[in-house]
Write a structure and sequence with these properties.
mainly alpha; Tetracycline Repressor, domain 2
Length: about 200
Amino acid sequence: MTIGARYDDILDATVGVLARRGYHHASIREIARAADLSLAGLYHYVRGKDELVFLAIARALEQLIAELDRALHESRTPEGKLLALIRTHLDFAFTRNAAMRIINRDYELLPEPRRSEIVVKRGEYLERGIAILAELDPYRRPPQALASATTLLLGMLNGIARRPFLRSGEDIASLAAEVGALFLYGFLERTAAVPALENPHDA
């Protein structure tokens, strides 16, 4: 097994233990056991729990950002970009729930300067959402208002990326269309443009 593959296995084990146990209760020994390593063997790759948590969160964020960038690259309209953001976030949160959980929860417990490095990466993801909303916004709202709206959208997606809202990956496209229509047009107003969001190939 290559060193890169071994690191991936270790970080996968770290994500699983952290998501299940939380930062304070997850032990380096438990992570080593989940990675099928001795404690000494794990210390051959990393210096301790803080480094493991940092690497696991950083990798999860990099994966999420890369998937969003690929989806945005294939989108041709501002509405399509919004739908790409919603679909990507729902898919990641549903299929890799443990990774999304540590992105949203455990980074705050990291010591500096690692916490700030994760904050920067989280900011990169948020900025993509802000840029999408800015492109859609006819009222030229200030950046802070767009940031609040983006944070609200992502928080809502985190909350519904689970049963009973999603039962399988096949539900993601239809739920994304519903959320996109609700976010774009509001709860009380339905327009003829809504069905256009329901076909991913129109994005």
